[in-house]
């Protein structure tokens, strides 16, 4: 049920206008960016966490025989998993703040809630969100680049296994085709064997652990890309919101809810204020 400023029930056209004002007060760009950020971070953190666990198992079973050879990698993986927990919590809270800022600065929402003036605090808050979101987008671009490294490693491994399968019946030199985990910094150079070659490598690629880990890293890479796109969308929306606040601050525009039948007077007053 819709009410006017005197708390009287409005007829059907008034209810329609009220509903349109409510729907118009939704910051759709910020809402879409929030959904993208939630889904991207969930995909990156969830799949990345499990992919790191499966990677540790692959290194333990097929590339290292001594516990001391991969104990450092195990600690690094554990630290990265803790970082993933922190990232998930941080992005959840920050996306909620950006969505709230989008609701606050949407021009349709200002019209819905009546008189509004751009304040110095509001402009400072908008500037802070722009700077922080831009810095996050740059930092996440680095995360996005680094998330491609495990995908590159597993892609090379799968390609080498495909070549081994094709040459297994025609040549005996397949043992020269290897994947050395030490070259990628996963193991120290004194780790034994540190690499998988020939049919051993081909057998490794056919295991469920390898296929699962490969798919998880691809999903985590896609999640990082979605999160980066969401941050860039946030940068554009916060910049637009800040521009609106600056415009309102310079013009001193204040919007009031019109009383029934005073639409013409409101338009005349707004035109006179703009000209002044």
From TrEMBL:
Pfam families to which the protein is assigned, alphabetical: Myelin_PLP (PF01275)
Presence of the UniProt keyword Transmembrane in the record: yes
Membrane topology: Multi-pass membrane protein
Source species of the chain: Paramormyrops kingsleyae
PANTHER family: DMALPHA1, MYELIN PROTEOLIPID
InterPro entries, per the entry: Myelin_PLP, Myelin_PLP_CS
Cell location: Membrane
GO cellular component entries: myelin sheath; plasma membrane
Name of protein: Proteolipid protein 1a
Domain of life: Eukaryota
Predominant subcellular localization, coarse grouping: membrane
